[in-house]
């Protein structure tokens, strides 16, 4: 059995990914900062405030799934570029030193593509705007440089958009569900004309799980549906599914100025890697 280390498993996406490892009877090591709620005997919890902690140097891990990243509520926080990049890179170096053949899987963001519109492919040059995307892009490039003198496998999973109930973060889906549950008469949002690529968080977690257990190297991989959808259409689909009568008020909120108006991901590479496992 491979030694698998997961960071960020207590986060929104991480909890769904961790559940898949447990349901499929994998034994995993997971980091946490303050508290953890999953009491499965399949998990060995490692408490740490810094990923480059000495605790990781005494265990030979075969696979790292790095889902951790802080300050996601502020995409322009300086920590994305000034602290987190070096913290994660030093963490990778310590793991590679113990096991030069480790497979490292890290999540990136579609915002690395910057202001490019339309269909986005993995071989397109990155041009990030926000500190969050700049930090992620720097980590990827620095890890690729590190890999030139090492034998480890490296896969960069570039996430687009996801939706699901998230009590910790004010996502549009969580806000919509909350408004419906509280019997509010209206739900305010942006114009809703922007086109995005959304996946249910459960499906995104499946993609990450299926890629990680292959213990191989795939380079950059877009994790997306491969289809663009207008945000207003997506919100209306949630409304229909819940059989809600809430009135949707568009144009009440401003659109983010750091995102292009219309873009979605190409998932051909993801489909090719997963083959029959895609669905």
Task: Describe this entry's structure for a reader.
The chain has 279 residues and is α/β, with parallel strands linked by helices. Helix content is 32%, strand content 21%. It is built from eight helices and 15 strands. It has helices at residues 12-23, 79-82, 84-98, 131-147, 172-181, 201-212, 231-242, 268-274; strands at residues 4-7, 28-32, 43-47, 63-66, 103-109, 118-120, 153-159, 161-163, 186-188, 195-196, 198-200, 219-223, 229-230, 247-249, 263-265. A seven-stranded parallel beta sheet has the order 3-2-1-4-5-7-12, with helices on both faces. α1 links the parallel β1 (4-7) and β2. α1 crosses α6 and α3 runs parallel beside α4. It starts with a strand and ends in a 5-residue tail after the last helix. The model has no long low-confidence stretch (mean pLDDT 92).
Counted by DSSP, the helix tally is: 8
Distance between the termini: 26 Å
Global structural class: alpha/beta
State the helical fraction: 25-40%
Q: List unreliable stretches of 5+ residues.
A: none
Question: Percent of residues in beta strands?
Answer: 15-25%
> What is the count of β-strands?
15
* Strand/helix succession: EHEEEHHEEHEEHEEEHEEHEEH
Shape: globular
The gyration radius over C-alpha positions equals: 19 Å
